[in-house]
């Protein structure tokens, strides 16, 4: 027997995305966003209510998406519960430093392992920010011997929208586009 929950945002894993933007004075800001994801080979969408970050996105037509990881869980949660409108030293208190993105006018959070640089395409229904991914970068310490991102070198976290918890992603359990071939 199955239990119905109605229309809820219950999809697992739910990425924990740290959005980086610049304000009107060029000051870096970050916020934690849980509702969004990849919607095409080079597109991402994030659903946000009104925030300093959304004002910054509209102003600059750009943002970064840093992948929250276990090592920085506390800082990543902090930037989601504290508004830059109320805390001027939000980034410093989080322990985040930034570098200007090479491909868009938005900050890369140096402490996070993986960053997507995104250019705003359009806002849909007033809250859904569709963007084109202009570049993906990763700290070299998270690359494998093949020069590609190695998920075994960092631990992304996922959000549980039911119990409001964070969970680490687990170990490799299979091979995409291969294991299913056993049923052919």
TrEMBL record:
Similarity section: Belongs to the flavoredoxin family.
Record keywords: Flavoprotein, Oxidoreductase, Plasmid
Pfam families listed in its UniProt record: Flavin_Reduct (PF01613)
Recorded GO MF terms: oxidoreductase activity
Cofactor: FMN
Domain (Flavin reductase like) ranges: 11-159
Gene3D superfamilies for the chain: Electron Transport, Fmn-binding Protein, Chain A (2.30.110.10)
Name of this chain's protein: Flavin reductase family protein
Superkingdom assignment: Bacteria
């Amino acid at each position: 027997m199955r239990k119905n929950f109605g229309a809820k945002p219950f999809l697992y894993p739910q990425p924990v995305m740290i959005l980086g933007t610049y304000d009107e004075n060029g000051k870096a800001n970050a916020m934690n966003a849980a509702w969004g994801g990849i919607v095409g080979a080079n597109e991402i969408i994030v659903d946000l209510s009104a925030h300093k970050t959304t004002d910054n996105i509209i102003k600059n037509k750009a943002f970064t998406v840093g992948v929250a990881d276990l090592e920085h869980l506390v800082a990543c949660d902090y930037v989601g519960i504290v508004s830059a409108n109320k805390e001027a030293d939000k980034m410093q208190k989080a322990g985040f430093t930034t570098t200007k993105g090479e491909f868009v006018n938005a900050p890369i959070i140096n402490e996070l392992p993986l960053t997507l640089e995104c250019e705003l395409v359009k806002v849909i229904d007033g809250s859904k920010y569709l963007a084109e991914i202009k570049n993906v970068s990763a700290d070299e310490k998270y690359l494998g011997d093949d020069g590609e991102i190695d998920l075994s070198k960092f631990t992304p976290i996922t959000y549980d929208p039911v119990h409001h918890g964070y969970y680490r992603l687990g170990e490799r359990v299979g091979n995409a586009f291969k294991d299913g071939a056993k049923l052919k």
